[in-house]
């Protein structure tokens, strides 16, 4: 590993000062599960490493006026152990449960998964369908952006060099909202998604197979996570009565994704599996009277 | 010039103060500076689990923690039976079940088992499999390891 200048901030203010001072030559470390691997491979050009892992103001989960806040230093294990998340953000919970291994989930943070901006980042598809917002702060002020606006390409975001992700928040899931996160990997543990899909739908009422709101997102099938708007519209405008109807809707996924072939899967396989994963997820939900799996 | 940082941590219940290079990982400090070589380096990138330790009570890959990040931490390695009594029972169960072949993954497996049993004293088979899912073993096929964790959970419960 090359020589580094290690800096540590214990407050948001001090982190923002460092970021502003070193601007183009500073990289943030939190859990380090991704960055340390890159440092070892000499893939990090910055010489200053800013450790934010001790900033207490950036760690925690809380509810406020129908919104659930998951602060960026929250680890995936914290998310899995939170009753609040289990109740009000269970799609995110399902996604975080598939990340890495116990050791990685114990150290890796939600904020890190977001700012790394991998098209295959598992939490990101779930945050898309839970319509999360991000608060970005610099010494000049702060701004709030939607999770969809945040990503511009693989590993690329709109985060400015002097900005810090300080909050991740989303509306609490309502009683009549359902959904799932599904991931296809080459194995169960320590697998990068070949692709993943997340769905959130609001049911019109008990006993019906109709929905008045739907959000669908696919991961690892395009340069960023993408929304499946044709699928969403089809869910809202039809009744999901039969497996045939569900398959018809799932087939629309084909037109939403623009995957590439890489070491994990071919383009064609990803296209086919985006349909199948969505189909399987919707069928499972229907078999359980549209209630989340527990 | 490599920057060094003065840090302190508790390792297996004892307090240490030392100076570490900013670009070292905790695994190297444990092995080369503290001379505790039970913790192994396999892949060096968080995939094999051979370097698993407890860091503030949670299992982590020591190969992915920058040494300065360990400042103030409480660390337990496979040598830490003085602070984690369950380690003895788990180690014994691994020996009795023949859950060790080449032995390279064993310290990491034992630390993941310890973390699991601290959280969940009576895990099911599938919970054990999930608990050791961050640890690779190329010898045993895992069956005997899973039996060993099961046996350890019963022994500790007695």
Distance between the termini of chain A: 44 Å
* Number of beta-strand segments of chain A: 14
Written as H for each helix and E for each strand, in order along the chain, the element string of chain A is EHEHEEEHHHHHHEEHEEEEEEEHHH
- State the oligomer: heterodimer
Quickly count the domains of chain B. Answer: 2
Rg of chain B (C-alpha, Å): 16 Å
Question: What tags apply to this protein structure?
Answer:
heterodimer, A: 294 residues, 5-stranded antiparallel β-sheet, 4-stranded antiparallel β-sheet, 14 strands, 25% strand, B: 158 residues, alpha+beta, Ubiquitin-like (UB roll), DNA polymerase, domain 1, 5-stranded mixed β-sheet, 5 helices, globular
Structure overview:
The complex is a heterodimer of chains A (294) and B (158). Chain A has 294 residues and is an alpha+beta fold. Chain A has twelve helices and 14 strands. In chain A, the strands form four sheets. A five-stranded antiparallel sheet of chain A has the order 4-5-10-6-7. The radius of gyration of chain A is 19 Å and the shape is globular. Chain B is an alpha+beta fold and 158 residues long. Chain B has two domains: 77 residues, Beta-grasp domain (Ubiquitin-like (UB roll)); 74 residues, [2Fe-2S]-binding domain (DNA polymerase, domain 1, Orthogonal Bundle), CATH 1.10.150. Chain B is 35% helix and 17% strand. A five-stranded mixed sheet of chain B has the order 2-1-5-3-4, covered by helices on one side. In chain B, a hairpin with a 2-residue loop joins β3 and β4. Chain B starts with a strand and ends with a helix.
What would a concise description of this structure say?
The complex is a heterodimer of chains A (294) and B (158). In chain A, 34% of the residues lie in helices and 25% in strands.
Give me the secondary-structure topology.
The complex is a heterodimer of chains A (294) and B (158).
Chain A lengths: L4 E4 L3 H11 L3 E4 L5 H6 L7 E4 L9 E4 L2 E4 L5 H5 L2 H6 L1 H8 L4 H6 L2 H7 L5 H8 L3 E6 L2 E6 H4 E3 L2 E2 L6 E8 L5 E8 L10 E9 L7 E9 L6 E2 L1 H9 L5 H9 L15 H21 L7
Parallel strand pairs in A: 1-3, 2-3
Antiparallel strand pairs in A: 4-5, 5-10, 6-7, 6-10, 8-9, 11-12, 12-13, 13-14
Helix pairs in contact in A: 5-8, 11-12
Chain B lengths: L3 E8 L2 E8 L4 H8 L18 E4 L2 E4 L12 E3 L9 H11 L9 H14 L5 H7 L11 H15 L1
Parallel strand pairs in B: 1-5
Antiparallel strand pairs in B: 1-2, 3-4, 3-5
């Amino acid at each position: 590993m090359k020589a580094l200048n290690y800096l540590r901030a214990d407050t948001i203010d001090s982190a923002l000062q460092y970021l502003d001072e070193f601007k183009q030559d500073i990289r943030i470390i939190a859990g380090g599960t991704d960055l340390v691997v890159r440092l070892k491979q000499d893939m990090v050009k910055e010489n200053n490493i800013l450790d934010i892992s001790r900033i207490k103001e950036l760690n925690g989960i809380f509810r406020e006026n129908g919104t659930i806040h998951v602060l960026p230093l929250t680890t995936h294990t914290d998310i899995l152990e939170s009753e609040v998340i289990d109740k009000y953000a269970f799609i995110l919970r399902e996604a975080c449960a598939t990340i890495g291994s116990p050791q990685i989930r114990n150290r890796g943070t939600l904020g890190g998964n977001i700012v790394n901006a991998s098209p295959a980042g598992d939490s990101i598809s779930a945050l898309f369908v839970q319509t999360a917002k991000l608060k970005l702060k610099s010494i000049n002020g702060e701004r709030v952006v939607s999770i969809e606006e945040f990503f511009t390409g693989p590993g690329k975001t709109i985060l400015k060099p002097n900005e810090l992700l300080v909050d991740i928040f989303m509306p609490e899931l309502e009683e009549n909202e359902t959904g799932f996160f599904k991931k296809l990997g080459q194995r169960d543990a320590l697998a990068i998604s070949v692709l993943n899909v997340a769905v959130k739908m609001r049911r019109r009422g008990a006993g019906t197979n109709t929905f008045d709101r739907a959000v669908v997102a696919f991961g690892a099938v395009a340069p960023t996570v993408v929304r499946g708007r044709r699928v969403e519209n089809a869910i809202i405008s039809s009744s999901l009565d039969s497996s045939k109807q569900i398959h018809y809707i799932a087939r629309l996924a084909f037109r939403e994704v623009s995957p590439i072939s890489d070491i994990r899967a071919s383009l064609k396989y990803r296209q086919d599996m985006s349909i199948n994963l969505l189909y399987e997820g919707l069928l499972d939900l229907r078999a359980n009277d549209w209630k989340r799996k527990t | 010039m490599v920057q060094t940082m003065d840090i302190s941590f508790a390792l297996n219940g004892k307090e240490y103060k030392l100076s570490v290079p900013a670009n070292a990982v905790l695994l190297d400090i444990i092995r080369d500076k503290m001379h505790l070589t039970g913790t192994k380096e396999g892949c060096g990138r968080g995939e094999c689990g051979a370097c698993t330790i407890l860091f503030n009570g949670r299992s982590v890959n020591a190969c992915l923690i920058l040494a300065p990040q360990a400042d103030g931490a409480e660390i337990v390695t496979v040598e830490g039976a003085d602070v984690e009594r369950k380690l003895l029972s788990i180690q014994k169960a691994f020996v009795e079940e023949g859950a060790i072949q080449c032995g390279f993954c064993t310290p990491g497996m034992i630390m993941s088992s310890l973390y699991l049993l601290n959280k969940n004293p009576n895990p099911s088979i599938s919970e054990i499999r999930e608990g050791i899912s961050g640890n690779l073993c190329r010898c045993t096929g895992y069956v005997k390891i899973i039996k060993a964790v099961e046996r350890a959970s019963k022994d500790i419960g007695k």
